[in-house]
Amino acid sequence: MNLAERLQAIQPVSYAEARRRFDQRVAFAQSIESTSEFLPMVAEALDRKAIGSFWAGLLIEWAEALAANDSRWSVERALQIAIEYDLCFSDLVSDCPVLDVSDADWPPNVALALVRPDTKVVLLVGDAAIRSWLETTLAKLKIDNVIIAVGEIELVPFQEIICRDQRGIFETLRRSRRFMGLGGRWYLLRDKDPKMGADGLLVQTIEMGQTRWILHFVGIPEEAGVRDILATGKLLLDKIEEEMKRISFWDAAEGSFEYWLQQVFLVNAREAVEQDAWPESSNVAGMALRHYDYHSDVPEAGTLRDLLRAFDLLVEKRKRGEASPHDRQAVSLSGRLLTKSEWRDLKWFGVDVVPYDAKYFPKVIGHLAQDLGLSVSAGMDWDFLVDGVKVKARMEYRQSCSIATEDEATRDRIFESLQKTDA
């Protein structure tokens, strides 16, 4: 059975049955006679957390098994993580399946399942060797409420997701939101350090001792500006496909660069934008430049290169945040590539916009007039003032729409404004 079928097969049980299972787990835990030097420390810590010292021997056996299998963890460190991090969620999660999205640098959250036999803890384990060891160890410890998932995880809408590591809040929500069912909730464990903050989206702080807190989120908070980036990304990829079809690059021969663009790049890029799981960097425009300018002369690919460059910039913007005013290139909401330049005849500071068309020019001038409070006059060129500084706009200048001004700081204001237009 796949994960969805396994979870659907779990039927609700009566209180009496739940109590019987709990008592059975407790009886097994109490039957373990541990001689570990850590037993007094663990028992005291569990009592202090009001979890129950009778779990101590079973918890130690889990820590010893983990340390024996993975050299990164000593028994002491495994126990410390279980007590300080894993068990923090024991009073928060319900009896429904809960997904742990902590990264692979954290040990499997078996401790939570151990003390909450009524809760089904779902772990993402991609490594086959670790998966096999974990299944064997869980069977030995009689922990039957851990469900190990591989690639079928997205078929299941979870109502509870927890995360123990210190990834950024938005990153955690972004990576896990496709797993979350409608109305579900996240519990994100954090060190109690004011520097961590909550990115302004703290829903509830749950105290977990002197050094820990849990940030409780209901629903999916939105990171400022991300919606525009995602919308622009989808638009850009559609434009790339349209341009490839326009210049007859679509349905190219297998093995060609155009075939790779269609069958690999566009497929992966659309998935990345859809899931907001962008790569760390992108240089597809550089690949196109080498292919079309260095290896051959393909002038009709100019607009395609511009669109690919805009996508590269969008990837950079999503990873870094807002573009810096000192950047030489940026992308507008409408997916157009903006490049800082210099007009050769006037020696003015310019912004070139590609691809351009007859509809873009009047719309973008109207946008600048509204955004910067301009008074515009039309002639052979368009002339206006920004706080007394002369500005000119030309429909066609070096195969682009271009806007230039005498002052570099004013050019930067225009450059920033153009990024906000969907013209």
What do these coordinates show?
The strands form two sheets. The protein has a seven-stranded mixed sheet, with helices on both faces. Strands 8-9-10-14-13-12-11 form a seven-stranded antiparallel sheet. The protein has 423 residues and is of the alpha/beta class. Helix 7 (128-140) links the parallel strand 2 (121-124) and strand 3. Helix 4 (56-69) crosses helix 5 (75-84) and helix 9 packs antiparallel against helix 12. Helix content is 42%, strand content 17%. The chain has helices at residues 3-8, 15-30, 39-48, 56-69, 75-84, 110-115, 128-140, 169-176, 226-246, 257-274, 284-294, 302-320, 360-372, 408-418; strands at 98-100, 121-124, 146-149, 158-163, 180-191, 204-207, 212-218, 329-331, 337-342, 349-354, 376-378, 382-386, 389-394, 401-405.
Summarize the helices and strands and which ones pair or pack:
Elements: H1 3-8, H2 15-30, H3 39-48, H4 56-69, H5 75-84, E1 98-100, H6 110-115, E2 121-124, H7 128-140, E3 146-149, E4 158-163, H8 169-176, E5 180-191, E6 204-207, E7 212-218, H9 226-246, H10 257-274, H11 284-294, H12 302-320, E8 329-331, E9 337-342, E10 349-354, H13 360-372, E11 376-378, E12 382-386, E13 389-394, E14 401-405, H14 408-418
Parallel strand pairs: 1-2, 1-4, 2-3, 4-5
Antiparallel strand pairs: 5-7, 6-7, 8-9, 9-10, 10-14, 11-12, 12-13, 13-14
Helix pairs in contact: 3-4, 4-5, 9-10, 9-12, 11-12
